[in-house]
Request: fold
Amino acid sequence: MVINVIYVSYAFSKKRISTIWPVVVLRSITSLFVTVFYLPITETLLSMIECETNEEGKYAHVDFDEIECFKGTHFIHATIAVLVNIIFNIIGVVVALTFFETRMLTEDITARQHSRGDVIFVLIKIVLQLSFTFFPVSVFILI
Reply:
């Protein structure tokens, strides 16, 4: 996918696009990542920084009690997870902003006149993912 992004970007910058299939493949893959794989990817990235105080009084990872949070190699993993999550969320919003149809009459059944709904949906997914990851479950039982 990275090679495809580089190729399409280079072809657009030189205005030499000989075939359209790399653009179609790139659009399909990015829309798949932002829709179907969005929540699993963000959940995996956020689970790397999900920590709580364990029985011993140490601030440890939720799934792995022996790993102390933000110490040693966990700090590196957490930093990379946060950076990749931020980049992935920015890509998700950009993809949601750019995938819409500008023509009033089109044969595409998935066409949208604007992208406001998709952008709001992505932002809501980000907020809910963060809240379900970092707030205790008891807070949501009261709601």
Remarks:
- Residues 46-142 form one domain.
- The mean pLDDT is 82.
- The longest helix spans residues 73-98.
- The beta strands are 51-53, 59-61.
